[in-house]
Specification:
This protein has 131 residues and is α+β, with helices and mostly antiparallel strands. Helices cover 33% and strands 44% of the residues. The protein is built from 4 helices and 6 strands; from the N terminus they run ααββαββββα. Strand 4 (81-92) and strand 5 (98-110) form a beta hairpin.
């Protein structure tokens, strides 16, 4: 069984390849997903369950941004908590404005599945990109 750190490393790799089923499979059925306060997709916080995350975050992100990447620069694991830190990059389709923003992701695990996610990022940069 992979460690929690390995699950998150795999998740970032899967996101880079567009492997959404891998990401959905690592979420617990009752996952609580919180986008950063004031983020462009925080309007539906909290997202409960994988389907809500898929529709409310990932599908909107794919529709709104071209070439969106999530590049981890550091992953720190301690028991059932894993933190990923890195950069988001992409271009808003509607405005042509680019984002290049730092992020921190906090993942909480139970029985090898993500049960809680918290995002921290430069929300002002994203709001400016979509305006």
């Amino acid at each position: 069984m992979p460690t929690n750190r390995q699950v998150i490393e795999g998740a970032y790799q899967a996101f880079a390849k567009g492997d959404v089923p891998y990401i959905m499979n690592m979420l617990a059925p009752d996952v609580v997903w919180l986008e950063a306060e004031n983020f462009i997709y925080a309007d539906r916080n909290p997202y409960i369950g994988p389907q809500a995350v898929l529709e409310g975050v990932f599908m909107r992100l794919a529709a709104d941004f071209e070439g969106f990447t999530v590049t981890p620069e550091e992953i720190v694991a301690d028991g059932d908590t894993v933190i990923g830190r890195g950069r988001y990059r992409g271009t808003c389709r509607a405005t042509g404005k680019a984002v290049d923003s730092q992020f921190a992701h906090v993942f909480h695990f139970r029985d090898g599945k993500i049960v809680r996610f918290l995002q921290y990022t430069d929300t002002a940069q994203f709001r400016a990109a979509v305006a």
